[in-house]
Structures are given as C-alpha cells and as structure tokens.
C-alpha cells in the first residue's frame, strides 16, 4: 500500500518548509539483532522514515532490545522474535532483511576461520527467508561474506525463488573506510569523497580503486600502497584494537544501515548507486562487488568495473583465485545435505 507523506524541514533561515514524498509501508527484519552490530543497526533503522515495522530476530535477548528500541519516538512499530519457532513471524511480509547473525573474529583469525560456524547460521536463516519472504532483499553482513552470499543464493535456488537482483553482500564498510582514509589524507570531506571498492570482502579481495576517487586526487606509489593496504586490513585493525572482544560493530552498523536504507530508497523509486557483492558476470568470479544501481526491483543494473590503472588491474588478477575459492566453498557447503 502506498501513501503520500507530508514531511517538514527547517531551512537555515528558520522557515519551515513542507514537501511531499512518496513513501511505502516497509517491513525490515534484522537477524542477529541482539549482537554488537545488530543493536546499533536496529537503532539506526528505526530512524528510517520508510520503515513502518522493524522486526528484530535473534536466538537470545530480542525482547529486551525490541522494548528498548521501541521507546524512541519514531513512528515505526518494533517487534522482537526469539529462536527458530519465531522466525516465520519475524520474516513474513518483509521487504528487506539485514543479516548480521554469527560469530565475529578474534585476533589472529581470518574471516574464513568463521566459516565453520557462520555458514550453517546463514544457511538456516536464508532457508527461512526463502520460505517466508522470498521477495525480500537480503543484505548479508555475516562473514565470510565472500562465501555467505553464495550460500544464501544456493539456498534460494534450491527453493526455486532465486532472484539475483535481491541478494546483496554488504561491502559498504570498505567504501566508508576508503572514503574516510582518503578524505583525511587529501584534506577532502570524507562524506563528499567517493572511492569505488570492488572485489570481495576479505584481505586482498578488497580492491579500492583509488585512481577513480572523486574529487580527483593524485597518489605517489608509497601513499597508494599504504592506503590500499590500510583499507584491506581495516577490519583487522579493529579486531586487534578490540583485543579479543570482537570486530567492527559501530562502523558496521552505520555502513549496514546506510546500505539497507539505500535499498529501501531504491524500492521506493529513488534510484541510487552503492557498491555491493552480487551475482556478477563482470569478471570470471560468479560473485563480485562493483557499483550497482538500486531501484524498485533491487539491483536494477550492474555498472561493471570502473576504469583501472595497471596497479589496480594487477590487484584484480591477484584477487580472483582467492575469491573464486571462497565462492566454491560456499556453493559446495550449501549443496551438501
Ligand atoms: N560485512 C562486513 O563488513 C562486516 C561483517 N561482520 C560480521 O558480522 C557478524 C556479526 O558480528 P557481531 O555483531 O560483532 O557479532 P556478535 O557476536 O556481537 O553478534 C552476533 C549475533 O548473532 C546472533 N546469532 C547467532 N546465531 C544466530 C542465529 N542462528 N539466528 C539469529 N541470530 C543469531 C547472536 O546471538 C548474536 O546476538 C560476524 O560474522 C562478523 O564477522 C562484522 C563487521 C563487518
Ligand atoms: O574484520 C572483521 O572480521 C569484520 C569485518 O568484516 C570488517 O570489519 O571489515
């Protein structure tokens, strides 16, 4: 059901101006809502005016998180759901499902070390999505993203409901970090600095395309190497700083909410562009992150590879074997009974 909403804004001059905006009733679920990412992400999504029902699911602690978020003075209804028995209720009618369920890294671990635990969690939750909200857009945060997105996709294929326009691996944090680090280095506003980041979401599979930053900037070889390595290792930087208590949660909640809100904007007819890890034919890897246009059908089109210099082309060649291996591992896991 769609309706027209009147929204009020206050201009710098202090004049209240009214504008009409199209808005829909959107139900958004967060799976893993009681976790380090899930809680702040739930808070941020409750502030999105397009969200009229925020459904918070976890295996523990959702009543408390839902009660807490529901007291903020936003219009959206907030409900909490706990455990497999309540997954159907959590998912039915969802337009967007954000998935940060699963264990995070400790120092010394790679994202792939999380596979044994998180692959099964994502497979189970994706099965729920395929059954109860097959048309929803999935935003998958759980690591290793390079494998969990193929797992969810295979589950949807098995259920005969696969729509590659609507299964997204969230790589927005890599973009957020690249914009921040480059903005700080070049003295540009990080919010107005745009670095495409392509590939996947682990180590060298994260490939920032610094040659295409806007506003345009020049990098010496040493500066380019240092920035590329920092963007690729930024997750590890946080894991080490947190010293065994987890990985990035607040920056990830920010990035995840930005991505999910942009998916909602797209569904609502406001086309926009984000980098995301999606089923892809732009390289020899079956899943790959590039800038994509988000719109009413989910991914409207894939904008493909940005222009690259020789350094970045070498980075692309180097990342493909690792990325393809992670994809194969996810596909095989999903198809094993
Ligand atoms: N894509 C990205 O850029 C990033 C991904 N991550 C990943 O996000 C995941 C979550 O990280 P945190 O929130 O820090 O972990 P956390 O341990 O704080 O929270 C995870 C939550 O998932 C819940 N959970 C476990 N099994 C579940 C199931 N079957 N159904 C529903 N919920 C379940 C747990 O109860 C917990 O509340 C990790 O895999 C982490 O590696 C983290 C940062 C960035
Ligand atoms: O590094 C981790 O394990 C969590 C993550 O994906 C990130 O912060 O980019």
From TrEMBL:
The keyword Oxidoreductase applies. The keyword NAD applies. It comes from Sphaeroforma arctica JP610. The lineage of its organism: Eukaryota, Ichthyosporea, Ichthyophonida, Sphaeroforma. SUPFAM superfamilies: LDH C-terminal domain-like, NAD(P)-binding Rossmann-fold domains. Residues 27-169 form the Lactate/malate dehydrogenase N-terminal domain. Keywords: NAD, Oxidoreductase, Tricarboxylic acid cycle. NAD(+) binds at residues 32-38, 58, 118, 141-143, 252. One of its GO terms (biological process) is tricarboxylic acid cycle. It catalyses: (S)-malate + NAD(+) = oxaloacetate + NADH + H(+). InterPro entries: L-lactate/malate_DH, Lactate/malate_DH_C, Lactate/malate_DH_N, Lactate_DH/Glyco_Ohase_4_C, Malate_DH_AS, Malate_DH_type1, NAD(P)-bd_dom_sf. Its EC number is 1.1.1.37. It is an enzyme of class 1 (oxidoreductase). Substrate binds at residues 105, 111, 143, 177. This is Malate dehydrogenase. The active site is at residue 201. Residues 171-333 form the Lactate/malate dehydrogenase C-terminal domain. GO terms for cellular component: mitochondrion. Belongs to the LDH/MDH superfamily. MDH type 1 family. Homodimer.
